[in-house]
Amino acid sequence: MQTVTIELTNNNSLKALQDLEHKHLIRIVKEPDLNSYALPGEAISEEDFKKWVEYAEDSPTVSITEAKQRWATQKKKAPKTYSLRVTESALQNIDDITGYIAYIKHQPLNAIRVGDKIFETIDRIELNPLAFRECEEIPTKTKIYRKAVCMSGLIIYKIKASEIVVLGIIHGSRRASKIRNLRKVK
């Protein structure tokens, strides 16, 4: 790519060059200057400005102005954070499952492995609760009841406004009525 230095005499020349840049026919490269990209009355932090410049440098067809707009929309779409609450019923389910494997089946190492997998899945639920399927056994319009598969078990949880409530952990072969009963868990 060839670089040409142009000194602009008026705003019309700049506008014509920006139109060519918008059509991806040329790329305007400027020395990064915080004030030249600020809208009138707009305050820009240096951190945001650096992000715009990085964004523009990563993609050669994106101008800093476009990068600014894309960065602003990404900033607005920041992932929502949820708090996680595991009910007493769910903790009792985990204890029952691991206890059965450890004491009835006489496989304590498998019990530890299963318990770890359950808690790993619960951690994944906390990070992205909408990644798992809707629980068809408890249908709702807002799809707040979800289920995550963990080995042969199902972790049933409910998504509230800013909270995830793990209602219970049951075996996948259980009847649908057992899953529906989890709706009553507080």
In short:
The chain has about 190 residues and is α+β, with helices and mostly antiparallel strands. About 45% of the residues lie in helices and about 15% in strands.
Structure characterization notes:
With 186 residues, the protein is of the alpha+beta class. The chain has two domains: 11-76; 83-184, YaeB-like fold, CATH 3.30.2310. The chain is built from six helices and five strands. It has helices at 11-22, 46-58, 64-76, 88-104, 108-127, 176-181, and strands spanning 83-86, 133-134, 145-150, 153-159, 163-171. A five-stranded mixed sheet has the order 1-5-4-3-2. Helix 2 packs across helix 3 and helix 4 (88-104) runs antiparallel to helix 5 (108-127). The chain is elongated, with a radius of gyration of 27 Å. The model is unreliable at 31-35 and 37-41 (pLDDT under 50).
The domain count comes to 2
Per the CATH scheme, the topology name of the largest domain is YaeB-like fold
**Name given to the CATH architecture of the largest domain:** 2-Layer Sandwich
CATH class of the largest domain: Alpha Beta
Strand fraction: 15-25%
The H-level CATH homologous superfamily of the largest domain, spelled out, is RelE-like
Helix content: 40-55%
Strand order of the largest sheet: 1-5-4-3-2
Number of helices: 6
Low-confidence stretches: 31-35, 37-41
Q: Could you give the distance between the termini? A: 64 Å
